[in-house]
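Tutorial, part two.
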Amino acid sequence: MEDGYRKIKKKICNLLCQDNFTEAIKEINKLPARKVINPLISSLCSIDEKIEHRAAVAIGIITAKLADHDIESARVIMRRLMWSLNDESGGVGWGAPEAMAEIMVRNKKLADEYRKILISYSEPDKNYLEHKGLQRSVQRGLKRLACKNNT
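Running the prediction step on this input gives:
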């Protein structure tokens, strides 16, 4: 089992590094959503911003596709991203706000359910994320969501 996970994680990392991201997404999309989501979430922690961004986009695509036939599993992914931003999680949640936005851009139902939560991460009297890196991720996610809603 662990060897299979490492194999998929390595494949995902290689795909996220490819020059042709469109082709990489096609390859990721061929893999089972439940097998690629963990390596993609791990890739959000990359020190390479390009990889972090690509992982967020891929999470959005995979989760939205999953939501088409299993909305509850997609909600679990959204809650997992939210949990990663919680102090009690023991993690930092790098890229999680952007991944949440990418999911919401692609799925209206999830956007309707989680938009206010993403917004709350930017509001000092709500769930404001004080870390500057996380706040940048929130702002990028909100910008992405706003751009989508204006088209």
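The chain has one domain: 2-149. In part three we will examine how such features are distributed along the chain.
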